[in-house]
Design a protein that fits this description.
The structure holds two protein chains of two kinds.
Chain A (H helix, E strand, L loop, with lengths): L1 H24 L14 H12 L4 H7 L6 H21 L3 H27 L4 H27 L2 H11 L6 H4 L2 H4 L7 H8 L4 H10 L2 H18 L7 H4 L14 E4 L2 H5 L4 E2 L6 E2 L2 H8 L9 H4 L2 H7 L5 E4 L20 H12 L4 E2 L7 E2 L2 H10 L5 E2 L5 E2 L2 H10 L12 H16 L8 H7 L8 H11 L3 H7 L18 H6 L4 H6 L1
Parallel strand pairs in A: 1-4
Antiparallel strand pairs in A: 2-3, 5-6, 7-8
Helix pairs in contact in A: 1-3, 1-12, 5-6, 10-11, 12-23
Chain B lengths: L3 H24 L5 H4 L2 H16 L4 H6 L3 H9 L5 H8 L3 H10 L2 E2 L7 H7 L5 E3 L8 H11 L5 E3 L8 H10 L5 E3 L8 H7 L7 E3 L8 H10 L5 E3 L8 H10 L5 E3 L10 H5 L6 E3 L8 H6 L9 E3 L8 H8 L7 E3 L5 E2 L1 H6 L8 E3 L4 E2 L1 H10 L5 E3 L8 H10 L5 E3 L8 H10 L5 E3 L8 H10 L5 E3 L7 H7 L7 E3 L8 H10 L5 E3 L8 H10 L5 E3 L8 H7 L7 E3 L7 H10 L5 E3 L8 H10 L5 E3 L7 H7 L7 E4 L7 H10 L5 E5 L8 H9 L3 E5 L10 H12 L1
Parallel strand pairs in B: 1-2, 2-3, 3-4, 4-5, 5-6, 6-7, 7-8, 8-9, 9-10, 10-12, 11-13, 12-14, 14-15, 15-16, 16-17, 17-18, 18-19, 19-20, 20-21, 21-22, 22-23, 23-24, 24-25, 25-26
Helix pairs in contact in B: 1-3, 1-6, 5-7, 8-9, 9-10, 10-11, 11-12, 12-13, 18-19, 19-20, 20-21, 21-22, 22-23, 23-24, 24-25, 25-26, 26-27, 27-28, 28-29
Classes of the chains: A mainly alpha, B alpha/beta.
Chain lengths: ~500, ~725
């Protein structure tokens, strides 16, 4: 439903976002992202506007094509205030309030420590340790204060910015095709030709005459990547529905209910400085290291839950916002969900469209991408089949199913004709799709262009096909020299692109 | 359809039939007065008919006037002997038609006869194809088409050559089918099992040795045939816990389940024991079940009555004890082999109030264990301790004095028991009907005297390889109800003792005198005269037996099995047997050197029911062998070292005998017989066994043989 509607917008915005986050990092304050969802053209225009204040090379760097050390230096200097940009979008007085109260608490703690120092003078070694503790705490408080205060800054700057007229920069154009309408595609080769280091790429693009396709592909891939990010959730399933065995008496726990939008937001942990979103707070802490040495202390890197556990633990359980669901707190036989992850997966599985279709069997649909991944691992290898058509990868599961349902019986292959039949079909499919023979089943499957069924693997294949060798190299070759610390730990070449999407996520949630 | 020789014999016997009908109605006046009152008049009509025939009146008209109801009543009384029915059907057309409609069970000799038989007998409900080695899919399809809803039972246990398609046609067409025996169908796969699953009303299913059937197949059966009451999965090596578990979930009416030698573990046992009606469970040779597994089973079964856990090598008394405590309703248990009968096991029997039968063959038994067992059980009816080590007079005496109701006792090879045991057995177990004490060599004349004196109800007695003499035999002849007497390898007995038996045991049906060399024609003659019901006699290696014995035995018209290996008999003696004993089905004349073609010709002429013959060492040539080809029932043949035989003659008989299923030949013939002929015969369902035994002319004296065989044992 809203997913489809969101797609094109997301695709473009995601593509651009890589650059956007760079921009923000480069001390260009407050791009008016909120407004840019209106149309692509409008969006492009706004970008030009914002780019007007950038020196061109930096913009190119933002695409990852250049990686110059000097840039990293400037960047790290400017980092703290770049958070501003992102916080503007969802400046939240409540968040600030909680931040402040947290700081208050922290200050009280420091006071306690100092008091204890006063009361027990003389013991040198203890004193040293306590002093260290106090300084650490104080620095933390200072940083927090600054960042909290910083959230207010962009509001002012934003107002200033909107007043200044946009100035076009030639270098900016290189980025535009990626983000915006295809009319600008022709510009891309021309502009890039100036960059001598990327002759090769341009040759490829020109000789193939497939500039458009490359861009399309890039757009697609970016879109896919952004969708396929939830892969990280693989292990989440293990926690899911973990409560079923639990029998907490009602009232013995606190029930929280997240809103639908919160649940569907891809990220739950956001960088207070740059606003980048993460699925896990561990990843956020890794990310924070890039914002300065103060985040590299063991205390900052430690799991915050330990702190929380020192306080009297209140058992928290979650309620599904869907009224009528058994997991909803209004339900008579309410069964709470144990963690936020449980909530997320439950909500997606039970109350969302199953929009991820398996590219192989084209029948199985999933709403949680991790489920699709799990399915794809054994799709086509299910040899235990029930007479009702359900397939199982394990014999005992089939027999459990047959035992449960009246009239279902194990289905027996009369011979292996069936198996060979499907493989024939696969080959036919490949050839009719006009794909290169060795493309692999996976790719041929999605060549039928159901964009929604694409996943990362497919995207890889696609790139391999459209730009045989260089695409990867030219786009991400520079990544090694690029200041990685600013990004999430990149697991795939696309993490570069995908990380950019995060700044848009809160807005998506509001849609 | 009716072969000329059948007709000929039918005419031969039609006089006999006339008297038979008379006998029937004069001998048993009014079996069921109430319901038969109306037909009583008609009975008189049928009584009158032979008289009318004698008067030369129009006989067929009179027979035709009998209503079908009456004919059916007559046929009901002819169930005992199939030949009588054949004769009946040959009397006249109406009788023939009545017999066709009356017949419910059909056992065709080969599948070639099936179309004709199905056309003649439209209402057959039980079809036994175990004599047809080769049954094609087409034949099964014709069965399904012809019998439709009348077919209730089909036996394909000895047949090959069909696939799942044939089974499917039966399962789909015959809605009333309740029994299928597919044992030994080793090449049938899950597809066949799925076909069986379409027989929704199936109640009994045997799949022994269907090794290709897997869990998937048995799953289809479990889902399809939910009315199953009996399921035999013996030796189905492809089936595991999952399949059995599904059967236990789906087939709630199961009463009898045989899982012997199936690679199951204890995991499926809870589901199996949860079956509400399960009475009979066999877990013979389930090697994956062990003590720990059995102890982990917590499910109880109140309904289980019969448990067979023989040969479970990894289960010991702890496992058994645990399981027995979960099955309080047991009546029979068999724990043969690999089980130690200890005190704890024996005391776990205490809660089995209904226990009647225990089989502990080949177990290690202690005296204290036996005593505990005796105290734990209420009243045993059957006890088998055959080949148990450690059975002593003390233990055995203790148990028999506690269980006076014993009807069956097996102490085979309990070599330590003496007259003391016999004294307590005979004094306490007066109702003993079945006693097996083969190789109890310490039992003396006194023991046998006690048996004869006290066990008047004894019906079966096995005294093979005992220290039995004429005096003992005389004592035993006091058991007037004896039906089965095995006194082989009793070297001390002679004609004198046998004459006593002949006088004392008129009901004797089976007599084994294997290698009891003191026997001569006089003893056999006495038996033949005194025991007219004799069906089975084994005179092998009684070297004094000659044609005279055969002449006297020919009077025993019920004789069906005759073993006279190494006897001094000739063709003429064999001929007399062939003429006299028309029911002869098994004949062993190995090492009867004087039997030649003449004997074979007469045998072929008269013994049309012969199924099995051993002709090794006989002086039979191609001519005699070819004559045997006219015996249409012949299935099993052993011919080793017959001097006059050529490969061509052998090939000819192999082709001529259409019903052969098993042929044992000397391996020297294998290359001489044309391969296409062998292949053709094998395709018909015949199995060849090629033996390479050395030629051995002279018989060693029985004393020497016994010595040798005992040395082999030790």
């Amino acid at each position: 439903m809203d997913f489809k509607l969101r797609r094109p917008l997301e695709a473009s915005s995601n593509a651009s976002s890589s650059m956007m986050s760079e921009i923000s990092r480069n001390l260009k304050p407050g791009l008016p992202f909120i407004q840019c969802d209106s149309t692509n053209i409008c969006y492009g225009a706004r970008q030009e506007q914002s780019f007007s204040e950038f020196p061109p090379p930096q913009v190119i760097q933002s695409r990852g094509l250049y990686a110059r050390e000097q840039k990293t230096e400037t960047k790290s200097q400017l980092e703290p205030s770049s958070a501003v940009n992102d916080l503007v979008m969802d400046w939240n007085p409540r968040l600030m309030l909680s931040n402040l109260s947290f700081l208050e608490q922290k200050i009280h703690q420091v006071q306690d420590i100092v008091r204890s120092i006063i009361s027990q003078e003389g013991r040198a070694n203890e004193l040293a340790a306590q002093q260290q503790l106090v300084t650490a705490d104080l620095t933390y408080i200072i940083i927090q204060l600054i960042s909290t205060a910083g959230t207010l800054l962009p509001n002012i700057k934003n107002a200033l910015l909107s007043a200044t007229p946009p100035v076009g920069q030639p270098g900016v154009m290189a980025n535009l095709p990626v983000n915006a309408s295809q009319k600008q595609h022709e510009v891309l080769p021309m502009e890039l030709a100036k960059a001598s280091e990327y002759d090769e790429l341009i040759k490829d693009l020109n000789s193939g005459g497939e500039g458009d396709e490359l861009i399309k592909c890039l757009n697609n891939s970016v879109a896919e990547v952004s969708e396929s990010i939830p892969i990280e959730d693989h292990d989440i399933k293990d926690y899911d529905d973990g409560l079923d065995g639990e029998n907490l008496p009602p009232g013995s726990y606190e029930v929280l209910q997240l809103e639908k939008e919160e649940i569907l937001a891809p990220h739950t942990h956001f960088c207070l400085i740059c606003g980048k979103g993460f699925k896990r707070d561990a990843n956020l802490r890794m990310h924070m290291r890039g914002h300065g040495d103060e985040y590299k202390t063991p205390a900052a890197l430690a799991k915050p839950s330990k702190e929380a556990s020192s306080e009297p633990a209140i058992i928290r359980r979650y309620s599904c916002p869907f009224v009528g669901c058994k997991r909803n707190k209004e339900h008579k036989k309410f069964q709470p969900l144990k963690t936020i992850l449980c909530v997320k997966n439950h909500y997606k599985r039970s109350h969302c469209d199953k929009s991820y279709t398996c590219s192989r069997c084209k029948t199985k649909k999933f709403s949680v991408i991790a489920d699709l991944k799990t399915h794809e691992k054994h799709c086509g290898r299910d040899k235990w089949i029930c007479s009702c058509g359900t397939t199982f990868s394990r014999k005992d599961k089939l027999f459990g199913h047959v035992a449960l349902f009246q009239g279902h019986a194990p289905a027996i292959h009369m011979d292996d004709a069936k198996v060979s039949g499907t493989s024939d079909h696969a080959q036919v499919g490949e050839t009719t799709n006009g794909m290169v023979a060795n493309m692999g089943y996976n790719f041929s499957g999605n060549a039928s262009d159901d964009a929604q069924s694409l996943d990362i693997k497919d995207v890889d294949d696609g790139q391999g096909y459209f730009s045989p060798m260089n695409f990867d190299a030219c786009n991400f070759g520079g990544l090694d020299e690029f200041p990685r610390s600013a990004y999430d730990v990149s697991e795939s070449p696309f993490s570069f692109l995908s990380t950019g999407t995060c700044s848009f996520i809160p807005r998506n949630g509001e849609n | 359809m009716v072969k000329s020789r059948d007709l000929c014999r039918g005419i031969d016997r039609s006089d006999g039939f006339a008297t038979l009908t008379l006998d029937l109605f004069s001998g048993s006046p009014n079996p069921n007065p109430c319901s038969y009152s109306r037909s009583a008049k008609r009975v008189r009509v049928s009584c009158a008919s032979p008289a009318a025939a004698a008067a030369g009146e129009n006989r067929s008209n009179l027979f035709d006037s009998l209503s079908e109801e009456v004919l059916f009543l007559i046929l009901d009384r002819l169930e005992s002997d199939p030949l009588d029915k054949k004769s009946f059907s040959l009397v006249c057309r109406s009788f023939y038609a009545a017999e066709s409609r009356h017949r419910r069970a059909l056992t065709p000799l080969r599948s070639g006869l099936l179309p004709a038989a199905l056309a003649r007998y439209p209402s057959v409900s039980r079809l036994d194809l175990s004599l047809c080695p080769s049954v094609t899919d087409a034949a099964l399809a014709s069965v399904g088409g012809a019998l439709r809803s009348s077919l209730r039972s089909i036996n394909l246990s000895r047949s090959r050559g069909f696939s799942y398609a044939g089974i499917e046609s039966i399962a789909v067409n015959c809605a009333a089918l309740v029994e299928i025996n597919l044992s030994n169908a080793t090449d049938l796969s899950d597809a066949a099992a799925a076909a069986i699953g379409r027989a929704r009303n199936l109640e009994k299913l045997w799949l022994a040795r269907c090794k290709m059937v897997t869990d998937m197949g048995i799953g289809c059966i479990a889902v399809g045939c939910q009315k199953l009451r009996l399921l035999c999965l013996k030796w189905c090596l492809g089936i595991s816990d999952l399949g059995v578990g599904l059967v236990a979930v789906k087939c709630k009416r199961l009463r009898s389940l045989d899982l012997s030698f199936v690679p199951i573990t204890e995991k499926c046992l809870p589901a199996v024991l949860r079956l509400p009606h399960l009475e009979d469970l066999a877990l013979v040779g389930c090697l994956s079940i062990d003590d720990e597994g059995l102890m982990s089973v917590k499910q109880e079964s109140k309904s289980l009555q019969v448990l067979d856990m023989s040969n479970c090598q990894h289960v010991n008394h702890t496992g058994f004890s645990s399981l027995l405590s979960k099955t309080p309703g047991l009546r029979q248990i068999s724990l043969a082999y690999y089980c130690k009968v200890t005190h704890s096991l024996a005391s776990s029997l205490q809660k089995l109030y209904n226990l009647q039968s225990i089989k502990l063959d080949g177990c290690e038994v202690t005296t204290s264990g036996l005593k505990t067992m005796a105290n734990s059980c209420r009243s045993l009816g059957e006890l088998s301790l055959s080949k148990c080590s450690g059975v002593t007079d003390e233990g055995l005496s203790f148990i028999v004095t506690k269980h006076k109701g014993l009807g069956k006792l097996d102490v085979t090879c309990c070599r330590n028991i003496t007259d003391l045991s016999l004294a307590s057995i005979t004094s306490s177990c007066t109702s003993l009907a079945n006693l097996s004490m083969e190789s109890c060599i310490l039992v003396s004349r006194e023991g046998f005297r006690l048996i004869g004196q006290r066990c008047h109800l004894l019906e079966e007695l096995d005294l093979t390889d005992n220290d039995l003499d004429d005096e003992g035999l005389r004592a035993i002849s006091g058991c007037h109800n004896l039906c089965v007497l095995k006194i082989g390898i009793c070297l001390k007995i002679s004609d004198e003792g046998l004459i006593h038996v002949a006088k004392g045991c008129p009901n004797l049906q089976e007599l084994d005198l294997y290698r009891s060399v003191g026997i001569t024609d006089i003893g056999v003659m006495a038996i033949a005269r005194g025991c007219p019901l004799l069906q089975i006699i084994n005179l092998s290696y009684c070297t004094e037996v000659t044609d005279h014995s055969l002449r006297s035995l020919s009077k025993c018209s019920n004789l069906n099995t005759l073993e006279i290996r190494g006897c001094q008999v000739s063709s003429s003696g064999l001929a007399i047997i062939a003429v006299g004993c028309r029911k002869l089905t098994k004949l062993d004349i190995k090492k009867c050197y004087y039997v030649d073609d003449a004997g074979m010709l007469l045998l072929a002429r008269f013994s049309q029911n012969l199924r099995q013959i051993n002709l090794s060492y006989c002086s039979v040539t191609d001519v005699g062998l070819l004559a045997l080809a006219s015996v249409s029932c012949l299935q099993n043949m052993t011919i080793l070292h017959s001097g006059g035989l050529t490969s061509n003659g052998l090939a000819a008989i192999l082709v001529a005998c259409g019903g052969l299923t098993k042929v044992k030949l000397h391996s020297s013939f294998k290359p001489l017989i044309p391969k296409p002929i062998l292949e053709h015969v094998e395709a018909r369902g015949c199995v060849f066994q090629w033996r390479d035994k050395p030629f051995q002319v002279e018989l060693e004296p029985s004393e020497v043989w016994k010595q040798q065989s005992q040395e082999m044992h030790v």
